[in-house]
Backbone:
């Protein structure tokens, strides 16, 4: 693939992140089905809460398509309580496993077989599965070269002037997928690293001074402390 200036910049950001944080080992799961369950449960919650919910499903021997499909929804909701929004997420898990059983006989392997291009659209027809969840399933469970866009991705790119405030999910995704090689391993690691920098540095109030992506900001960026602020800080004047 001929490299564009944007591609070079995106790769440079990636390298800085990788150098700082190293491999993130995403997605932590024992099976592809578990990845999918995690992708649904992680909506609007921290991963530690998802881990507890998945552990509860495993102990109850329900971490499989038939188990989730047949267990009463109230019991499912109580088992995944730690993940938050448990009634809604129980319903979403039910919707997904119903889809998997009807369409693919309950087999995740069969769902991903053949790399059919229409799978993303199929997943998006399932109630409660939006673009980020569908793409997480395709990338992390299906090893498809598709970029996952989340709130951290949007925030970092916007602060670095790579996108405008109202850029759509699809446009952000195309930015990565047009300018980077179609490599699932790269997309996997890149997304995980953006989450890492978002959690540690690129928070609501950014901590650019010590961030590994500081070098990509122009020196006059309003996100960086002004020189007199730095001097005042070092002199203990606050
Ligand atoms: S904290 Fe600052 S330097 Fe780091 S990613 Fe966010 S905007 Fe960029």
Residues:
């Amino acid at each position: 693939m001929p490299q564009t200036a944007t591609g070079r910049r995106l790769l440079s950001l990636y390298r800085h992140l990788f150098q700082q944080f190293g491999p993130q080992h995403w997605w932590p799961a024992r099976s592809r089905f578990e990845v999918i369950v995690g992708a649904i449960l992680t909506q609007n919650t921290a991963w530690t809460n998802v881990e507890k919910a998945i552990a509860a499903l495993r102990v109850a021997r329900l971490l499989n398509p038939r188990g989730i499909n047949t267990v009463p929804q109230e019991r499912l909701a109580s088992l995944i309580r730690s993940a938050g929004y448990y009634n809604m997420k129980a319903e979403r898990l039910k919707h997904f496993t119903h889809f998997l059983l009807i369409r693919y006989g309950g087999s995740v392997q069969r769902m991903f077989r053949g790399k059919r291009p229409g799978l993303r659209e199929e997943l998006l027809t399932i109630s409660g599965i939006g673009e980020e969840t569908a793409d997480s399933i395709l990338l992390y469970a299906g090893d498809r070269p598709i970029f996952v866009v989340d709130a951290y991705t949007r925030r970092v790119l916007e602060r670095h002037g790579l996108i405008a405030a109202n850029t759509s999910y699809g446009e952000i995704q195309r930015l990565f997928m047009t300018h980077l090689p179609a490599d699932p391993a790269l997309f996997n690691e890149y997304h995980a690293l953006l989450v890492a920098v978002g959690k540690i540095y690129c928070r609501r109030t950014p901590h650019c001074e010590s961030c590994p992506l500081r070098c990509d900001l122009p020196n006059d960026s309003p996100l960086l402390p002004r020189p007199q602020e730095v001097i005042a800080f070092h002199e203990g004047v606050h």
In short: The chain has 13 helices and no strands. The mean pLDDT is 93.
